[in-house]
Amino acid sequence: MPPQLEVPVQYLKGVGPARAAMLQKAKIGTVEDLLNYQPFRYEDRSSFRLIDQLRVGEDALVEGEIAVCGNYSTPMKRVRIFELVVEDRSGALTVKFFNQPYLQRVLRNRQRLILYGQVRRDDYTLRPVLLNPEWELMDSSSEPAIHSGRIVPIYRRVGKLTTRSLRTIVYRALSQLQPDLQDPIPDRLLEKHGLPDRRRAWQELHFPSLPEERKREAFLQDLESGATPAQRRFVFEEFFLFHLGLQMVRRDRESLPKTRRIEINNRIREVVKGILPFHPTAAQKRVVGEIVGDLRSGNVMRRLLHGDVGSGKTIVALQAMVVVLENGFQAALMAPTEILAEQHFRTLSRFLRSTDYRLALLTGRVRGKRRREILEQIRSGGVQLVIGTHALLEAPVRFRDLGLAVIDEQHRFGVLQRSRLMGKGDQPDVLIMTATPIPRSLALTVYGDLDLSVLDELPPGRQPVETVLCSERDRNRVYELLKRELAQGRQAFVVYPLIEESDKLELRAAEEMTGQLREVFPGSGVGLIHGRLKGEEKDAQMEALRDGTIQILVATTVVEVGLDVPNATVMVVEHADRFGLSQLHQLRGRIGRGSHQGTCVLMTGDARSENAFRRLDIMCRTSDGFRIAEEDLEIRGPGEFVGTRQSGVPQFQFGNIVRDRRLLELAAEEARDHLARLTKGARGEVKDHMTRLADQWRSRFGLFDVG
Fold first, then answer.
1. 173 touches 146 (CB < 8 A)
2. pLDDT in tens, 18-27
3. Co-location of 586 and 473 in the same domain
4. Would you say the pTM of this structure is higher than 0.85?
């Protein structure tokens, strides 16, 4: 019986236990895993050359008959050569294999042979020669030629398995597949989008059919760029199943009844208005309405609040938390750094000082008796609003009745961390905030199961920050700018990518340059803050910055998010070409938050590359965070853009969310439509199918469970 997709790869012909163990290390455990191990490139081995047409330096495909062959030793220790002479109607060609004595048992005179390799010049005869070429016997078995005479797949090695071995194993697996494989993509979608069925797609993925000569070059270009129908089919399949899973998770979540009831009345509206020191923008009002609608509904809220730097996300979150607190429930706000958590605590305490709410700050620095007191107050409900870092996720933290969890800068947290905070209450409503503008394609994968609110309006009076690109030769002019701003009572940030000097990277380090800046600006306070400072030292530096004792704060990217110093008007970023564009945009958002114009100076070396100039020029031309994010995603890719693999970006095997963004959006739409079409019984079948694939998708995506 032909092997099914779930059959262990060990039972394929030519594999066995030893090779199966090698494959397992590459996460190839079943026939399906093997067929999804796609080639990383292809070679066109379809055109044979006569021996007298060969030219040194070219890759050539030759067919001929072995005239003579044999082993011999060389003066070099441990080097033996198996040499043969192959003839065709135009001439003879020498072929040499190094340290492959087994070939003497396989290759013999009068056998017909296909050879593929680069033509070289023999050091001794000065005639063309092939060294260690790929080879294939024409009459050794009933199998057709799979290593030549066609477009050939090239695989990355798996352990000791070469691309040739993998090619043979994959070919045999394909030849034994059932013709009527179950396809996870509905037939109507295959037909609608012109996609091949799964079996045909696997065949074309690994052993593409040879197009006619005039179309061959274009076809090879499509192969290399992942644009053939077979390749697009697997990209679509991956995205479709991913989003089908997300939609099912979302539907299952929405089917869970909310155990608490949130009401909004005139008294609560007046309380919310009373805590605001200014009139909210139209965008803030709209988003608060969306959030309150979720809070009042019978379904648990899972909403992403997406807004550019300075758009007022904290004020929106504050209003939502007050609504929850007024209904007798607790709220929690989790931030990625102690600096940001402490700033949120100060800001919210200031806004809520006219109320009776009790707030608590819980970070890793809160220890001993004070920590035990806070934990007891959270457990008893004596504290209504808790602001903290990852410390909120620890087992001893238990809420009396958590109604709303707010997660700031979600991309700094992993998916499991997000889930752990949700688990601190009985299905609490969740509001996720990010100031990192996220392109639609990335948002669909990281936050595809969430509702989206966008703050697309800045508070009135906020002036755009001017951004300029400078090199080392401009340093004196940059320092003059700093002196002028400091003379007017303003403050500045100078940001470095490193803390200490590095001989390898040759970057200016924050600690070294702090001393130099103190010499250049002797009458000004120059402080230093970075992630390695102890909590008390960070507090001292931040307090000195707030009270004006420090005019220039030297920092690493610890100030990237959340720091609010309205008096800061200059941001100098050293070695700006070493930062991502979205990171630079976040840093730029730390200045110009008051009534004065801000200036961001991007410093680079004199010998910056053209690519670095192109990237940084985008920062100078636009303050649109979403446009910058699109450019950043194009340049760096999703993994680097988000920062860490645990932040929620699935590791797609076929799809690339930058290259294939249109297919991603199409698959998301089709997944929503497909689930909506299903009857209750049919939906159960889809769920059974997803349950079968749950382990595979969990390992590939690491995002959701279905079952």
1. no
2. 999 999 999 8
3. yes
4. no
